[in-house]
Amino acid sequence: MGGGGDGRSPAGTANDADGAAAAAMKKDFFWAESDEPHATRRRQILAQHPEIRELFGPDPSAFPKILGVVLLQIWTATLLQDAKWVLIILVAYFFGAFLNHNLFLAIHELSHNLVFATPVYNRVLGMFANLPIGIPMSVTFQKYHLEHHRYQGVEGLDMDIPSYTEGSMVSNTFSKILWVLLQLFFYALRPLFLNPKPPGLSEGTNLLLQLSFDITLLKYAGWRSVAYLVLSTFLGGGMHPMAGHFISEHYVFLKGQETYSYYGPLNILTWNVGYHNEHHDFPRIPGSRLYKVRKIAPEFYESLAHHTSWVRVIYDYIMDPTVGPFSRIKRKPQHSNLAKASLRCANRNKMKG
Predict the structure, then answer these.
(1) Which domain holds residue 123?
(2) pTM, rounded to two decimals
(3) Domain count, the chain
(4) Each residue of 170-198: pLDDT tens digit?
């Protein structure tokens, strides 16, 4: 991790923390009594750099890129229909995982309506980008991800934060290795247990399209092709360089800082999701333009700690005994302006009812 000109590493930062803070990190979250930092910083940046508004809006050039990755991954799957399992696993890890993670983060872009101006077009393209991932997730992801932005860190609303069950189970190096290997399962299943939402027509459509694609691929190319796609998804979401962003974005490596950017070469393959402070500050700016935010307003970002290697992030997460699932900042709803507004609205609706 770099940052603020001091270049301190996560491990060094953790060792600087007092013993009480380290113990608290293992047993509970960091609790904030203030709102998330991005809304305030957004207002400050726009006041000083109003030209950043020119970066807002969709980037239709993302469409052919998504189309190309989807077709390439499906073609690769058909090529492997008669391959040996060892080759399938190797290709899935060293090639397919990069493609499927790229598509997962394309769905992230689409969840913010950053490809087309019309939301339904983004939703349909998200279902299409979902096909090589093998598991229907694009519509459900959008629901929970937008709440992650709206209620960052809010207990019971931000499903990006690990559960207490995860925190209590992951207490040493070995269990952290298992958690990293399976983090995509936790990421996908956590909302269904902690904040379930009734499925709608869009989820049904997503499921129907995905099942139709999987069955068609199975019929014409066989189990190995389908397995290649699913393996590409789950290997790429575990102990894989691309999966480092899951940990790097909001896990506390420097006490008091809630969100971290990554400035490194894998941003090329991940729609610049590494520019994560910039993304949370301006979720209406597509990934292709996020780097311009830091160029226009460097004084707001150069002092923030950041990561330069997702592989190092995974290593530090596993090896640093003070870092784990509880290394996240949480807040009660009363400490979030948007959560308080939502609660007031819900209470008014109950009174009317």
Answers:
(1) 2-352
(2) 0.90
(3) 1
(4) 989 999 999 999 999 999 899 999 999 99
